[in-house]
Amino acid sequence: MLTVRDVGEFGLIDRIARILPKSPIVVDGVGDDCAVLRIGERLLLASCDQSIENVHFCRANITPDDIGWKAAASSISDIAAMGGTPLFGLVALSCPSDTGVSYIEAVYQGLANVFSQYGAVIVGGDTVESNGPLTLDVTVVGEVRGARCLRRRGALAGDVLAVTGHLGLAAAGLYALEHGKDIQELTQRQHRPRPRVREGQWLSARPEVHSMIDISDGLLQDVGHLAEASELGIDIDPGALPVAEALAKYCQQEDINPVELIMKGGEDYELAFSMDCSRCAETMAAIGNEFRTLITVVGRFSDEWTGVRVSGAEFDKAGFQHFR
Ligand SMILES: [Mg+2]
């Protein structure tokens, strides 16, 4: 029997996509950070994300409000990845019947706090009994308010690859927690990510920016999706990667390579995007003035190969994939 382990997460998604019917409201279905839907004059964005106990979090390591925070943030980040505005969410919860009520209230407080920070609301959902782990499924609906949204496809050969913020901190936070250490600056990045919604909206209004994704599964895998959707190759310059001081310090102490954490770690919920390199300095200065958000050019797109290279060479395999 062919199992989901055999085909992996992305093989499974391909098979599911073939079953789903087409509809005139669907502008883009499976295959990007959000589905894009035309409802009357409006372009809506829709996405959902699951958080499963002992897969995405361990109760021993995280407070209930941070479980909610992170689940909501990872969903809203998919709206950010397209340059959209989150509008509302639905939350499905399952938990064992002996779970404390105040624990679940704290989870929902965390969820509600993220939505309200981004001007959105949770409008309903579902609650069911689980005979195993606590699970959350957060659906978010947003809209495209500007002239366009950004897709994973659309990068052009010669574009530079740029990222927002610092990378690898969330992965280092997880590594530290798993090794019994709670280092505030790292734990915060692991438990309370802040999706780049405003930056995503701003970037989608710039014609020199051609494609975008959020970094949820590690830089290598996520920019691999940009390369694949755009049918191009990307060469990443590891020396250019934005390594925060806290990450450098921790990695030195623990004798870990920060580049590994950045490439494969994920959960940073920063944005990776492609842009016309001739307007790169101008765009970076403009976004710096607008948000004080660090933007770093970390690579370049090419039509001479497909897939992701690091310093011109194949990098040993990628980010997180379920079922494997
Ligand atoms: Mg995403």
Keywords:
single chain, globular, 13 strands, 25% strand, binds magnesium ion, alpha+beta, 36% helix, 6-stranded mixed β-sheet, 324 residues, 7-stranded mixed β-sheet
Write a structural description:
The chain is of the alpha+beta class. It has helices spanning 4-19, 64-80, 101-117, 169-178, 184-191, 197-204, 219-230, 245-254, 258-264, 280-291, and strands at residues 26-28, 35-39, 42-52, 85-95, 121-129, 135-143, 160-164, 209-214, 233-236, 271-275, 295-302, 307-310, 313-314. A hairpin with a 2-residue loop joins strand 12 (307-310) and strand 13 (313-314). Helix 2 packs parallel to helix 3 (101-117), helix 2 packs parallel to helix 6 (197-204) and helix 4 (169-178) packs across helix 5 (184-191). The longest helix has 17 residues, at 64-80. The radius of gyration is 19 Å and the shape is globular. The two termini are 16 Å apart. The structure holds magnesium ion (MG). Residues 33, 78, 81, 214, 216 line the site of magnesium ion.
